Amino acid sequence: MIDTPQTKVTVSPAESWSIDTQFSSRAVPIAQRVARIAGSKDLPNCRVTVQNDTSRKHQGLGSGTQLSLSIAEGLCQFANLDVSQEQLAVQIADRGKRSAVGVHGYFQGGLIHEEPTDGRSLNPVVNRIPLPPQWRVAFYLPPTPNDPVSGTIESDMFAKLPDADERHICELQNCLSQNLIPSASRGDFEGFTTAVTTYNRLSGMLFAEVQGGAYNGENVTTLVKKLQQHGAVGVGQSSWGPGVFAWFESAASLTDFHLDIDSELRPSFVASVMNQGRH
Predict the structure, then answer these.
(1) What is the pTM (predicted TM-score) of this model?
(2) Disulfide engineering: 248 pairs with which of 86, 119, 136, 238, CB 3.0-4.6 Å?
């Protein structure tokens, strides 16, 4: 989990339900579920104000999960509903069905390693590892002509995927258990970033059928290669992209890296690791 970009939601009393139109499609179903649990047929009389950078959506940052959880939690607090984290996430926010990383990260922070289950409940956390606070993540956005992967587009792409090869899955599991998790636990930057790059590429190949390779499209692939050619480490595609990340051992090393490279490789933003939940 990273500390930027942040999502802030404020819920305040009002004469009737109110929220900016751009967030209605996300917030209204959540408010309806809150009202139903509270035993009401009407939406709560409140004003929901979302303060965040909406341009960050569908870029591989999990911003949709964070926004839904923030709205759900704010409304539950407003309605004085005492619900569990799983009920808040699954039943009210309608998140965590494929992966619960974003949900657990919202509540706990850190590096989240989840365990797949039967899909009827949130995947449990196997490891939650706080990372060294001096580490930085730079986030880059290439120009891309493709529509963002979300909603029905994402569902259709998942539906087209072939079954994963067992040998490929074993490679991923070995990389995770033998390299990525141990190096993260030790705070071993070199081992961690090497494992992140390997794991990201291997996991991306599971989606090669629908995204054309380990990364989603030519522009993302080119950006990953350029960053690596300039010496960036821990480079990969975040979710479906188009966002690309690179890890740096400190703010100083990140500054040094960007002193002599092309302006096209300037990051969209830089984040610190977030080892605690947002709220």
Answers:
(1) 0.88
(2) 136
